[in-house]
Amino acid sequence: MTDSEDRTILLIGSGPIKIGQAAEFDYSGAQACRALQEEGARVVLVNSNPATIMTDPEMADA
């Protein structure tokens, strides 16, 4: 992204998941948040599962 661009990305989490799936979905979502922020994007996260790393207040911008 260039400095003149203002991008806000909506990242939709996986929501409720089965036992055994949590680590994979949570890791990929957390890495997506980090990568987008490193590129200068504002990340808005929507995830109905509060027990994930993705929903940490410092992970996304909103």
Characterise this structure.
Helices cover 27% and strands 16% of the residues. With 62 residues, the chain is of the alpha+beta class. It is elongated, with a radius of gyration of 12 Å. The chain contains one helix and two strands. The mean pLDDT is 79. The chain has one domain (19-62). It has a two-stranded parallel ribbon. The two termini are 20 Å apart. It has one helix spanning 22-38; strands spanning 8-12, 42-46.
* Count of helix runs: 1
**Low-pLDDT segments, ≥5 res:** none
How many domains make up the coordinates? 1
Largest beta-sheet details: 2 strands, parallel
Q: Round the Cα radius of gyration to an integer and report it.
A: 12 Å
Helical proportion? 25-40%
Order the strands across the largest sheet as they lie in space. 1-2
**Globular, elongated, flat, extended or rod-shaped: what is the shape?**
elongated
Arithmetic mean of pLDDT? 79
Structural class per helix/strand content?
A: alpha+beta
| Percent of residues in beta strands | 15-25%
- N to C succession of SSEs: EHE
Distance between the termini: 20 Å
Would you report the number of β strands? 2
Key features of this structure:
62 residues; alpha+beta; two-stranded parallel sheet; 1 helix; 27% helix; elongated
Topology of helices and strands:
Layout: E1 8-12, H1 22-38, E2 42-46
Parallel strand pairs: 1-2
Can you summarize this structure?
This protein is of the alpha+beta class and 62 residues long. It is 27% helix and 16% strand.
